[in-house]
Amino acid sequence: MKGGERIQESVQIIESLIEKYGASVLLLNSLALGFLQLKKYNEAEKQLLLAMEKNTSDASTIINLITCYTLQGKSQDII
User: Fold this and answer.
1) Cβ atoms of residues 41 and 74 within 8 Å
2) Which residues are CB-contacts of 16 (< 8 A; sequence separation ≥ 6)?
C-alpha cells in the first residue's frame, strides 16, 4: 500500500468515526490533516472552519487553518 492510499484509508476511517460519534474538534482536525496530505485544500479548509465553529480558540485548529491558507496561497490579510 502506497502513502497516498494509506492517507485515503485514514480519511475514510476518520469520516466513519465522525458519522458514528459526531464531529469533534479533534476528529475534524484529523480529517483536515488527511485532506492536506492529499492536497485537497478546499476540503481541509471546510473541516477546519467547522472545527473553528466548535471552538474558536483551539490552537491546533488555528495552526492548521493558517497552514491550509498558506498552502493555498491565500492573502496574508486572511491569515
Assistant:
1) no
2) none
Question: H or E segment at 19?
Answer: helix 3-21
Instruction: Give the pTM.
Output: 0.91
CA dist 65 and 28 (Å) reads 12
Quickly tell me which residue has 491565500 as its cell: 74
* Alpha-carbon span 71 to 31, nearest angstrom: 16
Query: How confident is the model over 33-72, as pLDDT tens digits?
Result: 999 999 999 999 999 999 999 999 999 999 999 999 999 9
Neighbouring C-beta atoms of residue 29, cutoff 10 Å: 22
Q: Where are the beta strands (DSSP E) in 1-79?
A: none
Give the three cell numbers for residue 64. Answer: 492548521
Cα distance between residue 45 and residue 55, in whole Å:
15
Tracing cell 490552537 back to the chain, one arrives at 59
